[in-house]
Design goal:
mainly alpha, 8 helices, about 160 residues
């Protein structure tokens, strides 16, 4: 079907249109991670986007891979303007995947951040006062390997929160 034959569905004119526009403008006026999460909640919500609402967790890997590949291409081309856009797409798709995972299972953004922050603090003892010092990149890499082995030996993917 050619694009000339596609009928565009126009939203009905109601008082709701203005509130939806205002919501879109509010999101655009505060471009931060919280607003992006709000945007995803709206897209996945009852009055959101049917296509986004139909996405399942199993659909997400192909989109994540595609966005990551575009980030890699922009880096390799030293195309920093495009890199900014592609990183945004990757951030969005990562957050979208987490939100879809939350709908289908027990995935929570807060838990994701808790786990990664705990892991990065644990794996950077030279910065955060742990038991391993490092003054060179090689020492950091060696310590990283030691810490990963400790995690495996403890049977944990990430260190527990303090």
């Amino acid at each position: 079907m050619s694009i000339a034959h596609v009928k565009l569905r126009v939203m009905p004119q109601t008082e709701d249109i203005e509130s939806r526009r205002a919501l879109g403008e509010k999101l655009k006026s505060n471009p931060d991670f919280s607003s992006m999460l709000d945007l995803i909640d709206i897209l996945l919500g009852e009055r959101g986007c049917p296509w986004d609402q139909s996405r399942k967790l199993e659909d997400c890997p192909k989109y994540l891979k595609g966005e990551l590949e575009e980030v890699v291409q922009a880096i390799e081309a030293s195309d920093y303007d495009n890199l900014e856009e592609e990183l945004g797409d990757l951030f969005f798709m990562t957050a979208f995947t987490a939100k879809v995972g939350g709908k289908e299972g027990d995935i929570r953004i807060e838990k994701i951040f808790e786990r990664i922050i705990n892991k990065m603090v644990y794996r950077h003892p030279h910065v955060f006062g742990g038991d391993l010092a490092a003054e060179t990149s090689q020492e950091v890499f060696d310590n990283w390997q030691i810490l990963k082995e400790r995690e495996k030996a403890d049977g944990k993917n990430t260190p527990a929160a303090d």
